[in-house]
Amino acid sequence: MKDLLGKAILDFQTNNNPQSLITETDISEAEEMDVQYLFRSFNEMPKLEQLALKKCSGKILDVGCGAGAHSIYLLNKGFDVKAIDISANSIEACKLRGIKNAEVKNILDIEDEKFDTILLLMNGTGIFGRLINTTKYLTHLKSLLNPGGQILIDSSDLIYMFDEDEDGGKWIPMDNKDYYGELVFTVEYKGEVEAPFDWLYLDYNTLQNAANANGLTCELIQEGNNYDYLAKLSLIQP
């Protein structure tokens, strides 16, 4: 892993000639992303992100923190926040931004810690990679919750990206896939290309069914304007 997304974040933070990222998936064309967007303020965030941050409480784990935009907002509100990301460059940038409790860590490697809010935003289901991994991640996230704790997670239903048949059904090519929301991403930065990686978008019903099957309640908090949504998962009370 070349950590190109993290490199772009660190370049922006240190003013080291940052450039736009180029992202592409196996079902969409390449497009540019301005790395500055990852440093957005609360007022610049989409409404679903703002809503998620307003619903945070207690001790918080920010999973896949990136440039730390969500953690910084929560720290400024006085919360106890731990920020994690698998990107070493991103964590270095977070520390430069003043996030002291930031660590290079895979969520699956966190043990013996409990949180009141676990935050997974900017398509939080993405880290699951493939549908088959959903149970593994939900089970582990559940183990990190304090009693009464919550997982705030967002995603999108990608069904809108596929063409309709004449009878109104969707034509979905499923080569080597178990689910239409399984994408393969590539990232390019300053002429370098990251190794392709799996990234999962889950429709709400699929997330709800998976949560219920793994001892979690799933509440639809709000839907966005582009097939996206914010959900709250919590422990099923005995």
What does this structure look like?
The protein has 238 residues and is an alpha/beta fold. The chain has a single domain (4-235), classed as Vaccinia Virus protein VP39 (Rossmann fold, 3-Layer(aba) Sandwich). Helix content is 23%, strand content 31%. It has a seven-stranded mixed β-sheet, with helices on both faces. Strands 1, 2, 8, 9 and 10 form a five-stranded antiparallel β-sheet that branches. The mean pLDDT is 94. GO terms for molecular function: methyltransferase activity. InterPro entries: Methyltranfer_dom, SAM-dependent_MTases_sf. It comes from Myroides phaeus.
Portion in beta strands = 25-35%
CATH class: Alpha Beta
What is the CATH architecture descriptor?
3-Layer(aba) Sandwich
List low-pLDDT spans. Answer: none
Radius of gyration, in Å, reads 18 Å
DSSP, total strands: 12
What is the overall number of helices? 6
Largest sheet: 7 strands, mixed
Superfamily at the CATH H level?
Vaccinia Virus protein VP39
Percent of residues in helical segments?
10-25%
Q: Output the strand order for the largest sheet.
A: 5-4-3-6-7-12-11
Our measurement of the CA-to-CA distance between the termini, rounded to an integer number of angstroms, reads 43 Å
What's the rounded overall pLDDT mean?
94
CATH fold call: Rossmann fold
Shape type: globular
Overall SS class? alpha/beta
User: How many distinct folded domains?
Assistant: 1
